[in-house]
């Protein structure tokens, strides 16, 4: 396990199953866990299993909820059949792009779901349909920083955790907004990208603070 500290951000290269027990409590979780595809076994595979699990196989879902506990969480995913009891709402991200999806039907997917788990979110009430275009410049399932800023802005003050931080969009958003961030990524290539992006965001934030004083 490798740890990098960049200003208010802590980044871990490793498996989130190993890292999470070492970091203690956080104030909110904002994450896009891999799902819908079969990969090697592991805690993150439980997230992937959610989309293909049937109503009688709830062990994967239950493990996710146990990991999150009562922490306010915004989780990208696809609970197609049975939503968790602590799901307060489902946000729809309109990506403005064309996906492949099921080629046997005449509609292409252009949205993703974001599950609002537990309470404690803040801010004025806005539409549950969020329109932010994506470019996928750093990652094949990249999330726009503007979208992540919107989500982070609704989280309670304190530390934001992303246990599947990928190329670091959640961390960039958090740092730009003056929030503490903890990110975990097991792919070394994406980890390095996340470090570079968050370091740049931290420098820009520091420059802004110095210019305003």
Can you lay out the helices and strands and say which pair or pack?
Blueprint: E1 2-6, E2 9-13, H1 16-23, E3 28-31, H2 43-52, H3 59-68, E4 73-77, E5 87-94, E6 111-117, E7 129-131, H4 145-153, E8 159-162, H5 169-176, E9 180-185, H6 188-212
Parallel strand pairs: 2-9, 3-4, 3-8, 5-7, 8-9
Antiparallel strand pairs: 1-2, 4-6, 5-6
The CATH topology = Rossmann fold
* Average pLDDT for all residues: 82
Helix- and strand-based class?
Answer: alpha/beta
End-to-end distance:
38 Å
Q: What number of domains?
A: 1
Q: Count the helices. How many?
A: 6
Please give the radius of gyration in angstroms.
17 Å
CATH architecture: 3-Layer(aba) Sandwich
Strand content: 15-25%
Which geometry do the CA atoms define? globular
In short:
The chain has 213 residues and is of the alpha/beta class.
What does this structure look like?
- This protein has a single domain (2-212), classed as Vaccinia Virus protein VP39 (Rossmann fold, 3-Layer(aba) Sandwich), CATH 3.40.50.150.
- The longest helix is centred in the last third of the chain and has 25 residues, at 188-212.
- It has six helices and nine strands; from the N terminus they run E-E-H-E-H-H-E-E-E-E-H-E-H-E-H.
- A nine-stranded mixed β-sheet has the order 1-2-9-8-3-4-6-5-7, with helices on both faces.
- The model is unreliable at 37-61 (pLDDT under 50).
- 32% of the residues are buried.
- With 213 residues, it is of the alpha/beta class.
- Helix 2 packs across helix 3 (59-68) and helix 5 packs parallel to helix 6.
């Amino acid at each position: 396990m490798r740890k990098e500290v960049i200003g208010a951000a802590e980044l871990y290269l490793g498996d989130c199953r190993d890292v999470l027990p070492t970091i203690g409590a956080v104030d909110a979780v904002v994450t896009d866990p891999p799902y819908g595809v079969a990969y090697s076994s592991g805690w993150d595979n439980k997230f992937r299993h959610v989309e293909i699990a049937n109503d009688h196989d709830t062990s994967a879902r239950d493990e996710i909820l146990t990991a999150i506990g009562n922490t306010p969480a915004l989780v990208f995913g696809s609970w197609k059949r049975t939503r968790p009891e602590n799901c307060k709402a489902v946000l729809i991200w309109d990506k403005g792009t064309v996906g492949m999806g099921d080629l046997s039907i005449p509609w292409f997917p252009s949205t993703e779901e974001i599950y609002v788990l537990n309470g404690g979110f803040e801010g004025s009430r806005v539409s549950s349909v969020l329109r932010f275009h994506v470019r996928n410049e750093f990652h094949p399932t990249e999330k726009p920083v503007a979208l992540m800023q919107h989500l982070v802005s609704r989280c309670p003050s304190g530390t934001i955790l992303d246990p599947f931080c990928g190329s670091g969009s959640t961390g960039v958003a958090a740092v730009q907004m003056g929030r503490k961030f903890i990110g975990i990524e097991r792919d070394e290539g994406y980890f390095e990208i996340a470090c570079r992006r968050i370091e740049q965001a931290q420098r820009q934030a520091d420059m802004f603070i110095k210019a305003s004083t």
